[in-house]
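Aggregate trends can hide what the representation actually does to any particular protein. The sequence in question and its structure tokens are set out directly beneath this paragraph.
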Amino acid sequence: MSASVKKGSVKKLVQAFSDGLAEEEDAERWDSDTERVVETIYGGLLSCVDDELYVQEFLPFGSIYKLAGERAVRLRKRNVPIEKVMEEHILLRDVFWELRRSRIEKVHDFTVERRICQCFNSILQATVQAYRTRETTMDVLDPLRDQATGVFNSMYFMTRVEEEIKRSERYMRDVSVALFEIRSDFMEDSPEQTELIRAVARVLRRNSRGSDILARVEREKFGMLLPETRASDAVLAAERLKSQVTEYLAGIGGKYKDVSVGMGLASYPEHGEDRDVLMQEATESIMREVAEGE
């Protein structure tokens, strides 16, 4: 789906939702905040049609899940009955499926339909949760996560690196750290940069091992802690991840054509026996990579 087609579809969906509220005599609930949330949700759903990885944004650590939860909290504080919120959810769903039925091919893609149903179930879960627990998310690790991407934050990452080094020293095992620096011309904190960072997080999260720790350590830099991984294996893993990120960004659209990904590595005990030394070595290896490419 091209960017222009998607934008047009989102606009139609948002308008149909607004009209639906008016028909149900709930037009007073239509405001700029509602429009923003509905537009984001529909944009995310359309992205999920073409991009299986995008479903992560609807999971409890994802941006759209949190957005739905935050809206539900606001509605609860305004004393809007949950029954009314459920009606809104049904309208949101019906409007989307109506547009999809009008454009669907003769052969249904049941894989996509299951994915979209999962997204709607997650939105409903976030809404009900906000009314029952008064929280936008029940993720106990939420304070340790980066708010934009849902991956762990720098504080948690640095703590885990230190812990893994101590564990590796005790049991005479290897541990490696990989850094991925995303270089773009987007303005800081712009919608384009935020979506870029979220896209990279989706790829890294999906393709990492269950034992790996992924974090956003700086504005445009991710760290991956690789327990029990020696330097040679870390190089292979990091190069694979870098390639997957690059391929994914290339497939999204033209606005990412000039984005580049720098990679840096450091391993214990080969490059040092201290957390800060390893992080410095990984950072410097990115700089050496850039210098060699010039």
